[in-house]
Amino acid sequence: MFISPMLLEYAADNKPFDNDNYITELKLDGIRLIVSNIDRVRLYTRHNNEITANFPELVDNIDIPPGTILDGELIVAGSDGKPDFEAMMERFKSKKSKHKAMFCAFDIIKYKNKDMHNLPLITRKEALETSFSDSQYAAKSKYLLGRGTRYFDLVKSQGLEGIVLKEAQSKYEIDKRSSKWLKVIAYDMREVYIVGYRKSEFGWLLSDGQRPLGIVELGVKSHERKAGFKVFQQLKTKETKDMVYLKPIIRCQIKHRGYYKSGMLRLPVFERFIV
């Protein structure tokens, strides 16, 4: 049985805060996963794609009671113990991958056939604690009351993705993006050159001046697109079927979530032009 999960919104200005009416959790860098045991254990992505057959080791070893549905994140830990998104995607695409997947549960939607979504989050957390025993295949996410600012600073210093702040009395809003759950992402900032643009769909090619760093698609407002396009016409060096390449003159500031092993920026977001 699939239940469409409750989704996050960004905290105001992507800033953490301290409020004892909220719980604070680590934001895990993986794939959202619904684990359901109604007739048998089944695994679903947030888009209702059943992936039970992809992870037989989890199905065989996640011991939750019949009539129970959990919400959480599917992760692979890297050699440093931190969630490794690239390794997770490699394991997601192939059962032959040697990466070990693990389910981290942070909420319980149904427990022993009892609907839990209308109960306060803090009550659901108590039920989650009794729903299964932690193992190498499944564990429960830890949380704090309040202390969002200090926890975020610690998370960022460790190079982790960010935190989630959730109202302790909030209900589980099925299939909704809710301001009751707020994410704060530990972005890194960088200055880069814009050295090209796509001809069809929007995207600016980024570079450090020596090599490409990926394409930014997010965060660019319409007036910035128009202003950039006018200037770019004076900086063309060559064209291909899909791309126009530019002299490395125009710089911008972007925020991003680290680097792929290829050296490309992960999820770059445009912040501003640098004049």
Topology record:
Layout: E1 7-10, E2 22-27, E3 31-37, E4 41-45, H1 56-61, E5 68-76, H2 85-93, E6 101-111, E7 114-115, H3 121-131, E8 138-140, E9 143-145, H4 148-157, E10 162-167, E11 177-185, E12 188-198, E13 204-207, E14 212-216, H5 222-232, E15 236-239, E16 243-246, E17 251-256, E18 269-274
Short recap of the structure:
This protein has 275 residues and is α+β, with helices and mostly antiparallel strands. The chain is 17% helix and 38% strand.
Report on this structure.
The protein folds into two domains: 7-185, D-amino Acid Aminotransferase, Chain A, domain 1; 188-274, Nucleic acid-binding proteins (OB fold (Dihydrolipoamide Acetyltransferase, E2P), Beta Barrel), CATH 2.40.50.140. Helices cover 17% and strands 38% of the residues. It is built from five helices and 18 strands. It has helices spanning 56-61, 85-93, 121-131, 148-157, 222-232, and strands spanning 7-10, 22-27, 31-37, 41-45, 68-76, 101-111, 114-115, 138-140, 143-145, 162-167, 177-185, 188-198, 204-207, 212-216, 236-239, 243-246, 251-256, 269-274. The radius of gyration is 21 Å and the shape is elongated. It starts with 6 loop residues before the first strand and ends with a strand.
